[in-house]
Amino acid sequence: MTLRHCTLETDAEGIAWLTLDKADASANSLGSEMMQEADEVLRRLEAAPPKGLVIRSGKRSGFVAGADINEFTSLQSVEQAETLTRAGQAVIDRIEALPCPTVAAIEGFALGGGLELALACTYRVAVGNDRLTLGFPEVLLGIHPGFGGTVRSVQLIGAPAALDMMLTGRNIRGTKALTMGLVDRLVDSADQLADAARDIIRRRPAPRRAPFAQRLLSWGPVRPFIAKKVRAGIARKARQDHYPAPYAIVDLWQWYGAKGRAAYDAEAASIARLFLTPTSRNLVRVFFLQDALKSQRIAGSRTPQRVHVIGAGVMGGDIAAWCALRGLEVTLQDRAEEFIKPALARATALFEKRIKDPTKRGEAAARLRADLAGDGIATADVVIEAIVENAEAKRALYAKIEPQMQPGAVIATNTSSIRLEDLSSALATPGRLVGLHFFNPVAQMPLIEIVQGEATATESTGTAIALARRLDKFPLPCRSAPGFLVNRVLSAYMQEAMLAGREGVPLPVIDATAVDFGMAMGPVELSDVVGLDICRHVGGIVAGALGRPLPDTRELDERIAAGKLGKKSGEGFYLWRDGKPVKDAAAETAPFDLQDRLMLALANEAVACLREGVVADADKIDAGMIFGAGYPPFRGGPIKAARDRGVAECVQRLEALAAKYGPRFKPDPGWSLLG
Ligand code: NAI
Fold this sequence. Notes:
Radius of gyration: 28 Å
Bound molecules: 1,4-dihydronicotinamide adenine dinucleotide
Shape: globular
Distance between the termini: 47 Å
Number of strands: 20
Mean pLDDT: 96
Strand content: 5-15%
Structural class: alpha/beta
């Protein structure tokens, strides 16, 4: 067999060096071809054992990123998935069974299957800089480790740490890998890695295993008690029918105690079942959707380095801080210093939370400067406008700042509801206006809608996309349609929640119904978080622009008039204490059709957006709602969920709801596009 994805050399000392270097790829993954080659190499080494074996990567990007996720999608049956997993396990087992010491020499990431491979080695040495990233991200794809990782991780670092890694998908970085015992030795730089590997083979220290106290926790009689506690913790975050993988991880440990052949067999059988679940299928799809958003780029666009933010309020202040955190030079302007001060204080808190190194924290703070006079406008690549949601005020501002801007610099507005065509008329070069619609809270929301008006130049869109990526956010290109994608679709769902509330359904019951479906947050709580004033404003603009009857806003108006604006004022629909809504324990069960009312209102609006081409395709709708609105990833997005339920059934239910509750439920003509 000729080797395409790895090389094997033996040095003068008799140590074999297996270098993984997947052809035509920037990172190593353990696809079937790579695994077959590794199997062949290991057979050769079994026939003539070397003094030791070092497994390393030929890529600077990292060691191994995991299994080949593309191959997951072709699995047709549980049997096929189990056969494939067992074949992979057998290769990894061969490493462990070699009669010589084996070392994984790690630089950068060793994730999923890559970490499992490393765990099968006698020793692990790694470059201990902040690029070192070890983790089991499988749970995020609805599965768990399948190449012996559920067993070997517990044996090496003990059940609590191993379960935590597998259940959360959390990455272990830098020196923590050493203190946890995941690696045996850290070196300072890549050029010391080979020597460290050689040295450990020569010295052959006793291989590490979890300390006795940790091993005791995996003792048979103790396991059920710990497992029960762990399961209760998982249940607080995810339901088993929504996310079965974390429960399977605990089951495996409880029943097999990370010991013996049976534990490996059970791991293979369990992951094979999980692979075929709709949850895993959808999470894998969402992974690819995310990748597609991340890899967008318009040829020739330059990544902005300097941004000037105007409006230091809730959004502008946080946008400026996020830009500085991500390495951009930022100036922040408002009408008076008193408006900028609170934003700078929030920025300090953000840097403190996110940047551990005090020098780097200081550098981030220095990159963000208050700029009352607007001096930064002249040198900015992008001016981000986040002043009040008022078209006239925005137009007046543009007319004033445009003459000061560099040619080619872009104005990015954070408007949440105004069409760009209504703003660009104030500009001599309307093409430079693009929408950069961040969501609140900026630091937590991964999506940015990139709004293109009729006049928006392609270069401006390209700059906005490049900026979003520079900020480590997912850009979602949208047409400048009312409410763009996310707010428009959410409006329909939140409005339905208000109507149900008015009919007397208790608000916590409404929220619980949506959360039951899998939404990150119920619609009433979401209204409080967004702010009732903003909901009212956006809801009105969207309805007006779409030529629909304006929603009845009596409840909202009353609360707003009483200063109850939601979370920000301490009370909205709920009272807020310590950042959490106070919800009376709702004993009442939800009306049988409430979930359909909420979720089909949302789906119907999503379908309307698809038909109108608000975003390019159904995948973008799904991605936008998952990353911008907390739609449950395990359902794959509103369009995918509708397809899974059956388009005909959705349409039928909408018609029934329309007959009972009114024409707002009339199925959008776009359903016919879904086929
Ligand atoms: P805000 O009221 O908290 O902040 C606006 C800031 O702009 C204030 O500090 C005000 O002093 C300043 N400002 C007003 N006119 C100015 C001018 N001519 N020059 C300089 N500064 C000026 O408003 P917020 O909530 O931050 O919203 C800003 C924009 O972001 C709006 O277009 C809004 O629709 C949009 N947006 C808001 C979201 C939210 O959840 N609050 C979410 C997404 C977008």
